[in-house]
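User: I'm preparing a small set of examples for a lab meeting where we compare how different chains pack in three dimensions. I only have the primary sequence for this one, and I'd like the structure in token form so I can line it up with the others. Please keep the answer compact; I'll paste it straight into my notes.
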Amino acid sequence: MSFFFCTPPNSTLPDIPTSDCPFRLDQIVFLFFQKAQATPSFVEGTNPIFEAASWTPFLTATDNTKITKSPAFSEIIIPKSEQLTTGGGDNSTPFGIAKLQGQSNVQVTGMLQDVPPTVLKQLDEYTRFSYSTQAISNLTVYMVNRAGRIFHINGSGVPIYNFNVSSLGTEGYSTTTDAEVRFTLANNLLDASGNFNTWDRNLEEAVPEVGFNPLSIVS
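Assistant: Understood. Below is the structure token output for the 219-residue chain.
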């Protein structure tokens, strides 16, 4: 059943698939940035995302298909969404049962350690591509974890919103100089049927081919 539109549910419950393999993001250490594309950049059978040769044209591109690699991150935290409800336990809803309104967007944070201000200044330029005007961001990321596994959505990057880098901070003697990176992953956008799309429901994991290590890419 749609949250907002008159779309009747199926007559039977959908099957729940089984899987023998766990799905773990683990520690995300690099983000690969790309402007949002009208079609997937990586296509199975043509230029699959797990092959090194598929990345070369985008890493060397000078047009809007260009992909860039972030500095290494520490402490990337992707929090779980929170349920959004109205009412509950009072007279504002039937039987006092809270009304589900969707899920919260999540604020991702990560730390860049000892990164020069010149690099941070370049990252500041990415903010303008991630504004949430009309719920459309023009900035996407491919996430790569410490094992070199690539997380994407059907060969495209994951849309992110309100990308921002903090000013530098330090706690003094023998400590790192840090800048915090922050961006939003959207969980509260409606599809054409009136259902909420969380950022991760179409997320896929790609295992690089032998000899290809995304961690060692130089953009």
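A couple of notes for your slides: Residues 28 and 144 are 6 Å apart (CA to CA). DSSP finds two helices and 15 strands in the chain.

User: Perfect, thanks.
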